[in-house]
Specification:
Three copies of one chain form a homotrimer.
Chain A (H helix, E strand, L loop, with lengths): L20 E5 L4 H11 L5 E4 L3 H4 L3 H10 L4 E3 L1 H9 L3 H10 L4 E4 L8 H12 L3 E6 L10 H14 L3 E4 L18 H10 L5 E4 L3 H11 L5 E4 L4 H8 L4 H14 L1
Parallel strand pairs in A: 1-2, 1-8, 2-3, 4-5, 5-6, 6-7, 7-8
Helix pairs in contact in A: 6-7, 7-8
């Protein structure tokens, strides 16, 4: 940091266990990966290669080497897991993940309907080999899960071995945690965090207004996902009270804490 | 492709005559062109330098060389054609296209009102020297063409020598094929494809929801245009059933076809 | 320019005193700065490092060197000024600006409520050392300033030593000059330009439709700010009548002027 200001929100250093930022890479070139690492490397904790993009990326190996050199774990989007699972190819999926040298894996049922017991079995199995991120919430705006079901599912998946549970929003931020307009389902979030420690959750929050909402409600170190590469640095300014939306909140909280 | 999955939609290899993706370059640097080629080169068929950007791009020659080396045809946006045409400078326009070593040219009347007979004369004339893409549909949201007129115009322009006819949407996806909200004019598209083979048409579809609509209605190999550089790879995942929106459709169609 | 067309709107060369384009850099890498300079360098007049991003940018010094080599003045976003001011650290802020070798500075009260007399004192003080851009308008969509207050403030700040006054819109283009929908408050702009020469004003206009509005109402050489890097070249085409939205206006005005 160029210059520290008095009364700024505290942020843990990498490797962090909370205050995580998950970046969504939906098709960066090797050079673009280098660029985002130069500008925002210290603020990224984990990288998701969006949905099935990895299968179609010609320069994938070099890109993964680049993230590896920066010490950043990478995982494949949950939709790719579902594409293999749908075809009964879970073994092939595990081999692919291993062949790519990845340590993290996402288990989701955003498109498919997978009975919870079955999903838990998959999580248990994969958790023996990988760090598992599992995702709750449908990608279909019509399939609304009541809050108590979110809580039940999240708790069951953590017990089954998920490292963190991701709460769904998509790249668009219009499903799962959000109304089709992008507005946060505040009551839903309140019920979830009343029962599950936020450090075990990752909230997908692609839009700035959503990021601001979570930082205001759950503090600067809330775990946020689906952050576009060019939004990682802007998000970090929000967390540290260096952008208009959180300037006063950040200052007041840090002042009263000290 | 990293790994082929069973029951995936088939895609022809480049050079393709259908299943085309037209990328919109509205001001990439030479290095950014290299970047998009690295990540999405195999999925691009044609590049449009948006509207009049070419006239103002300092590094134009080097950029064109870069596309040429990748075997990708480039053409100048239709608005630049109209800017010359409006001034009675069609000859100068042809000389410019030749001087730049381009083989394709767009003829449009998105801003100007050009009588159809006159537009057909221009198409005939240019088709003697270049591959002509002509465009139907106004850039003005108020100028609504009834479906039968779209069909008549498209057919007449193909007969006059157009290689393909582009159906207008702009960079925003809010005119021509779409309502101001971005919603597809489904009835219009149905009437057009009832009379003209989709392989002869290019549908501008800048937004993901529009791309999904066309892939669902006309299959993975529909020709789509005005695709932003960073959306070329994501579009390819949609075509191949590797993104949530088309995962099940792609699987079912490919399963029943085999 | 590749080829000049008859009857195109005239644009002054850099360094310009009017017809300015202010680019918003919210986290470009050094290479991305080089890229935008290659493609749009001649069309940029000033660069703002958005809000507090500068404090968190690891490669800041090299980035500033890059802009300096291109002859482009850089300044820190007004929110960073406010973050220091709020903490009573105005001296530290001036030292930071000097240490970075910057010549321009922004004074704003988009988040804080600073009494006008106090803001004028700050402007006077900073104007002795730097070129001051001051900003009018709140970042809060609820805090609506009546037009006569905009005019009073702008005039007072210019008298106090501001080089230009920026009219607020944010990165989103939804406050200050605009309604929450992004629509221009046309009456407000009319009142302002009736009393203050437009050459002394910079209108933040991040959205294309807003840029078009200002170019149509105040001509191709209106000063526009908060322009995203990838929109600098597209904006220049709008100014020169090389994009659909201004093609006819630009041609008619230039024809009747000659």
């Amino acid at each position: 940091m160029l210059q520290k200001l008095p009364s700024m929100p505290e942020r843990p250093e990498r490797p962090r266990t909370f205050g995580l930022t998950l970046m969504l890479d939906k098709g960066l070139s090797v050079r673009q990966v280098e660029d985002v690492l130069e500008v925002a490397g210290p603020y990224i904790d984990l990288v998701k290669l969006g949905w099935g993009t990895a299968l179609l990326t010609p320069c994938l190996e070099r890109k993964l080497a680049c993230y590896r050199a920066a010490g950043l774990p990478v995982y494949l989007g949950g939709t790719l897991f579902e594409a293999f699972y749908l075809r009964g190819e879970l073994d092939a999926y595990c081999r692919l993940v291993e062949r790519l040298g990845l340590t993290h894996v996402e288990v989701s049922d955003g498109v498919l309907t997978i009975p919870l017991e079955e999903k838990l079995r998959v999580i248990r199995r994969l958790a023996a080999h990988f760090v598992v991120l599992s995702e709750v919430g449908s990608k279909d705006a019509e399939r609304i899960l009541p809050p108590y079901r979110w809580v039940q599912q999240i708790q069951a998946e953590l017990e089954a071995g998920s490292w963190k549970v991701i709460c769904e929003a998509r790249e668009s931020g219009t499903v799962g945690l959000y109304r089709p307009s992008g507005e946060v389902r505040a009551g839903l979030v309140d019920e979830i965090v009343a029962m599950v420690p936020p450090a075990q959750l990752i909230f997908e929050a692609p839009r700035k207004v959503q990021q601001v909402w979570f930082i205001r409600h759950l503090g600067p170190n809330v775990n946020l996902g689906n952050i576009a590469p060019e939004e990682v640095l802007p998000l970090e300014t929000l967390r540290r009270g260096l952008r208009a939306d959180t300037l006063l909140d950040g200052y007041r909280q840090a002042s009263s804490a000290s």
